[in-house]
């Protein structure tokens, strides 16, 4: 897992063209003016999902991981806690769903504060629990870019 400011995206060019394209999109786009929905940045290989929601208590969170995509989660407005753990330290709760590229887990992890203009890069070895409130529920604009693994 990587957590950083959107101002530092030049440090991550070594992660490949698709990740670079995703990070540039996140830095250059005003998401206050973009409607909720999915946007293809490079066909089905790089897809951004813009959403607005209220953060929730940790008890309502779900641990998830993806096998075929890197998640880049960007906080365009607001702030939340995102839980994270290593896949090897978690116990599967559901079978892997290949159509949705998701599997849910149970276990314990750590947490990171994701503030406005920060992003997390979550690899298939990272289990994560997004959308958790810091103190009180807060309105968040988040963009999750799914980058297909080679």
Instruction: Note the main sheet.
Output: 6 strands, antiparallel
**What proportion of the residues is helical, as a percent range?**
under 10%
String of helices and strands = EHEEEEEEEEEEE
CATH architecture designation = Sandwich
Q: Say which CATH homologous superfamily is assigned.
A: YhcH/YjgK/YiaL
Instruction: Figure out the total of helices.
Output: 1
Question: How much β-strand is present in the residues?
Answer: over 45%
N-C termini distance: 18 Å
The CATH class turns out to be Mainly Beta
Overall spatial form: globular
The value of Rg in angstroms is: 15 Å
Overall pLDDT confidence: 97
Order of neighbouring strands in the sheet with most strands: 1-10-5-12-3-2
Number of distinct beta strands: 12
CATH topology: Jelly Rolls
> What's the structural domain tally?
1
The stretches of 5 or more residues where confidence is low (pLDDT under 50) are: none
Described by its quaternary structure, the protein is single chain
């Amino acid at each position: 897992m990587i957590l950083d400011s959107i101002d530092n995206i030049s440090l991550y060019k070594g992660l490949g063209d698709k990740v670079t394209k995703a990070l540039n999109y996140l830095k250059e786009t005003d998401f206050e003016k973009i409607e909720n929905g999915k946007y293809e940045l490079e066909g089905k290989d790089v897809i951004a999902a813009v959403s607005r929601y209220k953060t929730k208590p940790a008890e309502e969170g779900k641990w998830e991981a993806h096998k075929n995509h890197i998640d880049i989660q960007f906080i365009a407005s607001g702030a939340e806690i995102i839980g994270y753990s290593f896949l090897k330290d978690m116990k599967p709760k559901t079978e892997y769903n290949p159509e949705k590229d998701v599997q849910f887990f149970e276990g314990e992890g750590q947490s990171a504060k994701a503030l406005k203009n920060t992003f997390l890069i979550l690899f298939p070895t990272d289990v994560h629990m997004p959308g958790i409130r810091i103190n009180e529920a807060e309105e968040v604009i988040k963009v999750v870019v799914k980058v297909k693994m080679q």
